[in-house]
Amino acid sequence: MDPEFRGDQDHHDGTSDATPGGYDAKRRPGELGFALFLSLASAILFYNAYAISGFEALSAPGSVPMATTAVMLISALVVTWRTARLPRVTVETLRGDILPMTVLIFAGFLVIFGLLLKPLGFLPTAALFLIAAIRLLSGWGWPRSILTALGALAVIWIVFRVIFTVLLPSGVVPEAEFIQLFRNLLSGGGS
Amino acid sequence: MDTLLAILTVFTQPDLLLLVAIGTFAGIYIGAIPGLSVTMAVSILISFTFSWEVYPAISLMVGIYMGGVYGGSRTAILLNIPGAPSAIATALDGYPMAQRGEAGQAIGVTTVMSFFGGLIGILVLALAAPYVSVFALKFQPRDYMLLAVLGILLVGSLSSGSLVKGIFAGALGLAIGAVGRDPLTFTERLTFDLQLMEGGISFIAVMIGMFGVSEALLQLQNVNKTAIRQKITKIVPSFGVIRKYLPLSLQTSTIGVIIGALPGTGGDIAALMAYDHAKRVTKNPKVPFGKGAMEGLVAPETANNAAVGGAFIPMMTLGIPGDAVTAIMIGALFIHGLNPGPMLMIDQPDMFWFIVGALFMANIFMLIFGLTGIRIFTKIVEMPRAVIIPLILLLSIVGAYAVNNSISDVYWMLGFGVFGYFMRHYGYPLGPVILGVILSRLLDDNWRRAIISDREDLGRFFEGILTSPLSFTLFAAVILIFVSQTPLWTALKIRLFRKASQ
Questions:
Q1: A33, exposed or middle or buried, with CB in 10 Å at 0-12, 13-18, 19+?
Q2: In this complex, do A72 and B452 lie within 8 Å of one another by their Cβ atoms?
Q3: Whole-number Cα distances in Å, B311 to A41, B303, B329
Q4: Residue A46, pLDDT score
Q5: What is the pLDDT of residue B72?
Q6: Do A12 and B411 touch (CB under 8 A)?
Q7: Which pLDDT band, with edges at 50, 70 and 90, does B487 fall under?
Q8: Residue A57 φ then ψ, to 5°
Q9: How close is the nearest chain A Cα to the Cα of B423, in Å?
Q10: Residue from B266, B275, B321 nearest B438 by CA
Q11: Mutation site for A-interface testing, chosen from B221, B382, B388, B416 by largest number of A Cβ within 10 Å
Q12: Are B20 and B188 in contact (CB under 8 A)?
């Protein structure tokens, strides 16, 4: 395996962290668009950084942001220029390789999760999310998907709510009362 | 005596020992399961442990770090899928060995060698860090600034992908870190006049988004990949085998420690460089490299574990992370009200010695868990991704929410998750972003301190750089990285090499 090799036939070999998925001599679908977006965003940020304190003094609060956003802008422009000159990868499409349906659906799931988390509470939201996600990804039947999802949720809830004592929005489920009941039972049994 | 007591803290408190053990065990599996990375795990864990005391939190993270760097080798050998970037080089010779039916031996040697490398890394950390921290007291603000720039550039240039993209990523991280009210003058910076941005962007949200959500989204595309079962026999390697590779492992451990100690570069780069080194020095391997040479396993595995100890050196002495994981740990120490840097070493040496002790224990647990429990291991790695991916996403959300109990952090995290997803696809490294976010404050403060002490005079500032040997070395290194990426350097290299070969 070539260390410079960045992916299997699906262009993502499951290695993690900052393993970039780009190619050296080719441009992936949407790559130019992304580079243009970065250039534009850098330009806006640079303008904003300039507005902090302008060229007032070298030690002004805006000088480091101005320098970093300038570096962003320059490097983004260089990347855009280089990307534009590369030939496109012929075997990939934006819909098939960069933004397949599953990814879009999951992004949607996550947004809905965020919206429901406060009003509905963590447990119901997470249960809905896990059931839908596992059912969608695994292709298992409903009973198995639901059981797996609820089982996993129970473990996560016990580990994080009870052991790590992470506070999660309780919403419609009377979580605190339940935990108290549980504790009372334990202490009652102990005494 | 105090030092010894501090090292032994881990041993005297069973709960801490247990946490290190749990962390190491979990780390091995997190490292082994492709798609779960140590960086991801540690960044999610910060948010869960921030209400804890410092010691237990650090114990868990140290265990996960140590175990995870090793764990990646398992899947690299068995499935040809490196579970973590630091195991990329391991797959080159590990998988061919497994194909020949020597998976057990490969795992055994890997485990012992990882232990050995880890041990050397910890030893160097324990011996070198106190001296470095004394030396670090002489650092001027401008040296800190240069060191921060150097660290970001090093990750950008040594990790795969182009340097320009790395530079962009680092600058982006610095800009993200600058958002919010300026700590010195209270001026709003890059907030777009939104109240939401005034407090700055939570770096934990950025980390979890970039390393958790984007990874999970990327993994959605290979949900249906299944693991192939391998028969594993005879794991514990014989003493003869170990002795044979001892000289090589000493060399590659040294490479590992040095690369690990360079700010910004970690186990993945150390492993690849050590592999290269092994290829060069091994004149007659029994089996050629790439076909299952034992040397090709020993080198990367000693190096990546040695890099763990190395990475802690700049983190503990200068407050500059040695790699992405230590960057996140610096974040964790911040949250616990500690400020890593030379003063921490002097004010609270116990903290440092405690980490050394915890690392040492994690290394031992790694050896124990590595040589046992292969059966459970294959079971866990075969856990369907259709379940793992939703769980990662769920944990990411919980983690992002838990730190400030705020929904807006969850949205930041999702935003950076999607952004990181595109960055991964288009070859922008994520490591520099995190380093940038963590170092933003340090760079900004030190630049302003330096330039104010030079009375706002750039001429004096550069004079200072040129006359101080330390600043000059750092400055030269920064320039060298830039030059090394220009056509000028390639031309120079060709000329030099031609001369050498004549």
A1: middle
A2: no
A3: 33, 12, 11
A4: 92
A5: 80
A6: no
A7: low
A8: -155, 160
A9: 7
A10: B321
A11: B221
A12: no
